[in-house]
């Protein structure tokens, strides 16, 4: 099946596009360029009308917090994106992505991809997804070689590298190779939408590893 025949997936991608269209770059030329590149690539996705491959859904323990995280987006500029994610939640494959996951993280973390080389919406130039954290989570330091990354905070609050607190609607920008560590509040989950931009080879062959401590 094609993207053009699946309204729920179309809405989800359009709501992603809208975030990157209306979000501020804060005067940063590098962030402005990244926002524009994400929009360009998503525009190309709509032109190409890629296939959608819906595989059997996979849940992780952290998914127990998903309903709360989606509800907490109400009243924020990310609410529409949260509703669109909710519409396809029964088709999502949640995963850890790392060969070795710290024991304390298995109950509090998981991500799902909605677009990329592995689908469900095919693209070999951009990956879109969501990462869900339970309360009181520390996501260890890691980086992505050759991949420019941005997070939009959908709900909850997070801190990256202890340099600030990002509320719903905030953008976090990580240039390729930048090491980053994320922490979440004590009582509420946090849901982030993310985009990776890189070459087709880099996106297909990316290996997720935590920094050695």
TrEMBL record:
Transmembrane domains' residue ranges: none
Origin species: Pacificispira spongiicola
InterPro entries: DMSP_lyase, RmlC-like_jellyroll, RmlC_Cupin_sf
Pfam family, one: DMSP_lyase
Alphabetically ordered keywords of this record: Lyase
Molecular function terms from GO: dimethylpropiothetin dethiomethylase activity
Name under which the protein is recorded: Dimethlysulfonioproprionate lyase DddL
């Amino acid at each position: 099946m094609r993207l053009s025949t699946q309204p729920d997936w179309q809405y989800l991608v359009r709501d992603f596009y809208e975030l990157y269209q209306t979000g501020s770059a804060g005067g940063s030329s590098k962030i402005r360029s990244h926002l524009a590149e994400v929009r360009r690539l998503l525009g190309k996705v709509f032109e190409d009308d890629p296939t959608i491959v819906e595989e059997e859904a996979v849940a992780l323990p952290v998914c127990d917090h998903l309903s709360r995280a989606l509800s907490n987006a109400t009243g924020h500029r990310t609410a529409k994106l949260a509703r669109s994610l909710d519409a396809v939640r029964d088709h999502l494959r949640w995963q850890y992505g790392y060969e070795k996951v710290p024991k304390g993280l298995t109950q509090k973390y998981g991500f799902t991809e909605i677009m990329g080389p592995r689908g469900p919406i095919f693209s070999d130039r951009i990956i879109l997804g969501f990462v869900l954290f339970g309360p009181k989570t520390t996501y260890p330091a890691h980086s992505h070689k050759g991949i420019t990354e941005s997070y939009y905070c959908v709900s909850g609050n997070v801190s990256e590298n202890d340099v600030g607190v990002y509320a719903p609607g905030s953008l976090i920008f990580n240039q390729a190779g930048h090491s980053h560590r994320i922490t979440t509040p004590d009582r509420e989950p946090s849901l982030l939408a993310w985009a990776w931009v890189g070459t087709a080879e880099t996106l297909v062959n990316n290996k997720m590893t935590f920094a050695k401590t």
